[in-house]
Amino acid sequence: MSLDRRKAGVFAAAFLLRLLLIVLFPSLPDLLTGRVEVSTPVSSFKRLQEGLFLYTRNVSPYDGGVFHQAPLLLPIFALLPNSRDSPLPSVIFYSLIDLLNANALIAISDSGQAVSGRFYSALRKHIRWDGFAIAAWFLFNPFTIATCLGRSTMVFTTSGILYAVSSAVSGNSFNAMLALGWASYLSIYPALLFIPLVLLCYDVRAQRTKAAPGLAVFVLQHLAVLLLSVAGLLGMSFLIIGNFSQIISATYGFQLLVPDLTPNVGLWWYFFIEIFDSFREFFLGVFWLHLTAYVGGLTVRLRRQPLFVCTALLGVFAIFKPYPSISDASLFLALLPLYRHLFPLMRYTFFAVAAILYATLLGPAFYHLWIYAGSGNANFFYAITLVWSLGLSILLADTIFAALRDEWELENPHLRGKDVKQV
Amino acid sequence: MATPTALPPLPFNPSRARSYLLRLPLFTRLVLLAALVFWLLELQTVWSVVQWGALTPNEINLGTMYRLNTYPLIHVGFFHFILNVVALTPLLERFEAEHGTLTAVALFIGPLSTLPAGLYLLIEKGIFNRNASVVGASVWVFLLLASEAIRTFKSHPYFSLGSTKIPTWTSPLFVCAVVSALVPNTSFLGHMCAIAVGYLLGLGYLKVFVPPEKILRWIEGKLNLLGRLPHYVSVDQKTFGRYGVLPTSAPVGDRPHQSAVVPPRSVVHLQIINNINWVYFPDRHQHQCREVTDLMALKSAIRKLRSNPQFLYVRLPYLLSFLCIVAGVVWLALLPLDDYSRRTYISENALLPGQVHAYFSGSEQNVFRGYKKEIESLLPASYHEVQESGVRDAEFTPVVSDKIQSILRAAGLKVATQNYEYSSSGITHQGQNTYAIINAPRGDATEAIVLVAAWKTADGELNLNGVTLALTLARYFKRWSLWSKDIIFVFPPDSKSGTQAWIDAYHDMQPASIQPLPLKSGALQGGLVIEYPFDHRFESIHIVYDGVNGQLPNLDLFNTAVAIAGGQMGIGASLQEMWDHKNDYRARLETILRGMLKQGLGYATGAHSSFMPYHIDAITLQPKGEGWQDEMALGRTVESLCRSLNNLLEHLHQSFFFYLLMHTNRFVSIGTYLPSAMLVAGNFTIMAIALWMRTGYKSRAAVKSSDEQSSDGKPSGEKPSDEKSEVEQKSSQTETKDATGTTERQLALPLSLVVGLHLLGLIPLYTFNNLSYKYYTPATYAYILADILLPIFLSALLTSSSTNTTTNPHQHHLIKSFSLLPLGLFLSTLATLNFSLSFIIGLLCTPLTFIHRIPKTASIPAPLRYALALTGLVLLNLLSPPVVLLAACTYSGTSVETVLTQAAFGWDVWGMWTQVVVWCVWWPAWLSGGALLGCSFF
């Protein structure tokens, strides 16, 4: 009971904090919506408004060439009052989604899959946070709050991913695939989580029932569910918009081919600004291949901890996807405290956190110098996005190191606590 | 420790490198030392070492023969020095080890430096008749290389490349060719001379210069050089040469170093040396033993220092932080020197300052007088009455506005007005801007230049001549056909709010209380503000350039103004109210500091400041002094400036946006001055990182020290007893201690405290920006009182909240770490935006690095601790934001109310964020520092 009360307290406090912020600083949502760190071309609330305007006037939302998000968001947002006149309802809506995400996080944490799974049981199980602490960490993370107030549509993808994981750890693999289908429908890259997620589902199933089905059959079944769910969502989109090829080219084509090089916190935009056009296709392929390459390696190496693979992949996406924003980092940071038991094994947390903090402060400052003051140039901001990615990479690599070390110590109990060098 | 023995050894072994360095023989050391000293001497600017000691053919006469010996020891830069030293050390060490120190001294001071020098002089002067001076130890490098090559040639005459056989003695020639091809400014001739002498040396023709062995032995014996000088290579030793003795040949089978890997490598090495010496020089064994024990002691001291956490984590960070602060301040003090500052220059070619003739003269003066009469007649009668007493205050009435409009209309300009109203700290500022536009005859209305003449200057004086001059210029400019940019004349009623309202509305960014502009033009390229608040003639022009929040206009604009005023018009220019600038160090530093103060405070220094946030470069021209320049001269200056701006092909971007001016034609750019603020900001980060590492390191140190104590019973005496006890308790809590020796840090309380304090800063920020101006003085005193009480209250809260007293110091370290980290973060970010503010706040915060809770130890009795804490708190309170504000106001003679009203006005109207930095960066860090000090009471 006390947990429920604490949870209710955290949720209420998080909700009130968001309301308080918008009441105290009425210009804050619009300010954040315009920030490149919060809004990317594929998640910007402003662009959604543009699409919505066209949609409510019976024009194809993709005609303007500005809107690149999934069509099903339009009918949802058409129900909300116009956010230009009254930003409050939209912020409340986004806050509620944040609370839902936190709820999914609590479910993931309570399942205990992060510390002990089918093949694996962490050494330092006792060092862990409650679900409510993890939810609080997520809800009070400034990046989450900024994303919420900036009303980036990335939160829908986030909730799709979180619900997929929470359904998977609670054994509801069908729902997990539906949720993953929703996330993939919104922004394709979550489909890369399919392999670790289906392994997670399978492990949970095998843990619960002794007579588990064969792995291949299981995977094929779930792949079919995922594909059907995406196909269903696309079918609904077709019913709404009509012009199917336009939908595909404006949303998925846009996400895959990265034509809009508006600055963001990622590593792609500057590179593709600089690259000669003749090499563009090649490097586009290389960049995507690089992003997908992590899936196989991590899944194989960390087969015993599929949930950790999901977390690590989310960290990889936050660094290397084409249009990253701080909301991707906030999702990765939200899942990190599930691995509280790995923190004692991590070595560079302070430096990673310091790098991220520096980037958080210097990023807007240098962007200001570049765009507004005119006294800096693009390299200023790009350098900071490099620092930001570096900080996240250190954090991610350190987490993976800690997970591997934990597994290793489990295998070699006699070397526990000894200095070991890798050769 | 746990490294498996099967691992291959690292290719580079630091301990070997160290032992190599420690074994360098005497003369090599002396040469390196001399080169280092000369390089360090070269850093100062008074006496040029290179000019003194270089081998310059024309400078050589009987009195300057010392150059033949000094030139190898002198280098012209750090890289020259370090590369030569790295190349020379092994060669020279080898030579000395083979020939003995005395021979090396005799050769290198004598023939081996003078012979190549003489050869060089002969060829350079005698044959080529040139005068290139050479310097550097590379002469010895090539000389020794050549002699080594001859030796190699004797044992391996050729190396074959494919089928061709290349004699090995040519290798130095290749090296010389490659070096002269790759490295700029190397003397090929000098190197060749060195190689030639080296060949002679290798072939044995220089043996005549080597002193006879008998004499050497005699000197050595008489002076007991071996006993007196460390690292001395004796005449005897040289016969064995470098490779004469191999360690394995020594009969040391029963020595421990062969049996196991127990002692570290360096110790084994020393023992080998020791054994060798003992075997081959039994009579010198005693002496060598002493030397070795000395070395051992030194080494163990170094090792102890390194593994001494007390030093590494407690003392060193303080030292580093202190050094950072000192270096930061010294850096700033160096900036006015000629070597660190630069002359200003016009970077944008299109500006062409002063290249056109200014025609504004003659009959225009009559127009000026006429306009002035017309406007003066509208002023209230009281204006003329008080004119004599010097006080001139006249309202910008609608009548005046109408008059200005009618004049502008008569001149053929498009005219419009804009009403605005601001309210800040209970005061309402309202007025009406009048402005007019000349459409460019040769442009397409996409770009424009602004000329502003406010009715009141920034100091509140009546700017009658300035307004009249602007009107005259408007009529005059309208008749020219050469403008390619629109020219906008703005007449705001005051310098503080009018331009801000106008420029906000120009970009459609105005708040609701401001009217939008009915008439607009293109993108503004530059702005000039004219002030002329007196009737007499003037002497020089004072240029004001600081913008809101320390933003500065492009340096090209300032330079153009200086060039036109000084070069074309013959009017002197001044800056930062330095009327009597002698251009010496003191005056330059004062100019820099004045500029920094203005930049740091971030307020608008004139009507031009409002333009800066929109990336429009603008300056104010203020005539100053009593001279013979009349308003026409100012008008011509403005005309010429407008012509220059009119020439611009693109927005001013070439020159610097970040600079500190120290004279009208000297400045330092951001690359030169930024390190100073970064160093000051960095000291906080260093401390934060050190404290963080210290909190995690303790348990490991504790484990070690407790191990030591149990094994050899040697207590680590320097550690304060409270740390030790805490440390022991820590190590007993085994579950908090993890495998790799780091502890789990209790982060919740420190984190929430620091975040809470930063949020608490919003309260004073809100108060001081929203109070009515009447309450500012009492509010300041209230905050001073709060600053006295809050730290003590916080520390009481801290002490009572954590019942476990042993974790307290741990928590305090973390609190300090977490409060210094954002301080360092914010200040280094701020340094890129507003260098001066970051530097000032950084300096005011420096005590926070060094204060800490005074621990309850036996060495400090309780009364002394209380007294210390009390003094600390009192001193700290003297540096709290409101006290500093009060002190600054008292010093400058302004009232607190004025300053705070101005600040609130800046926040509300100009978008100034100095307050945010004070209350949300400085104050929270100050509070947590105070709270930590306050903890000493409990």
Automatic annotation (TrEMBL), chain A:
PANTHER family (UniProt xref): GPI TRANSAMIDASE COMPONENT PIG-U, PHOSPHATIDYLINOSITOL GLYCAN ANCHOR BIOSYNTHESIS CLASS U PROTEIN
Q: Which organism is it from?
A: Aspergillus campestris (strain IBT 28561)
- Location in the cell: Endoplasmic reticulum membrane
State the pathway, as annotated in the record. Answer: Glycolipid biosynthesis; glycosylphosphatidylinositol-anchor biosynthesis
Which keywords does this chain's UniProt record carry? Endoplasmic reticulum, GPI-anchor biosynthesis, Membrane, Transmembrane, Transmembrane helix
- Which residues are listed as membrane-spanning? 91-108, 129-162, 182-202, 223-248, 268-295, 307-325, 345-367, 379-404
Concerning InterPro entries, the annotation shows: PIG-U
> Which family would the database say this protein is a member of?
Belongs to the PIGU family.
Q: What is its main location?
A: endoplasmic reticulum
Q: Which GO terms describe its cellular component?
A: GPI-anchor transamidase complex
Name of the protein in question: Major facilitator superfamily permease Cdc91p
Q: Does the keyword Magnesium apply?
A: no
Task: Name the membrane topology term.
Answer: Multi-pass membrane protein
UniProtKB/TrEMBL annotation, chain B:
Q: Where is the composition biased (Basic and acidic residues)?
A: 715-729
Output compositional bias ranges, type Polar residues.
730-742
**UniProt cross-references to Pfam families, sorted A to Z:** Gaa1 (PF04114), Rhomboid (PF01694)
Topological type in the membrane: Multi-pass membrane protein
Q: Report one GO cellular component.
A: GPI-anchor transamidase complex
Q: Which residues form the Peptidase S54 rhomboid domain?
A: 64-206
Q: Name one GO biological process term.
A: attachment of GPI anchor to protein
Q: Identify the keywords attached in UniProt to this record, alphabetized.
A: Membrane, Transmembrane, Transmembrane helix
Spans annotated as Disordered: 703-742
Matching entries from InterPro entries are given as: Gaa1, Peptidase_S54_rhomboid_dom, Rhomboid-like_sf
Main location group: membrane
Membrane-spanning ranges: 20-41, 73-92, 104-123, 135-154, 189-210, 312-334, 673-693, 747-768, 780-801, 813-831, 866-893, 913-935
Q: Where in the cell is it found?
A: Membrane
Q: Which GO terms describe its molecular function?
A: serine-type endopeptidase activity
* Name assigned to this protein: Gaa1-domain-containing protein
Q: Which organism is it from?
A: Aspergillus campestris (strain IBT 28561)
Record lineage: Eukaryota, Fungi, Dikarya, Ascomycota, Pezizomycotina
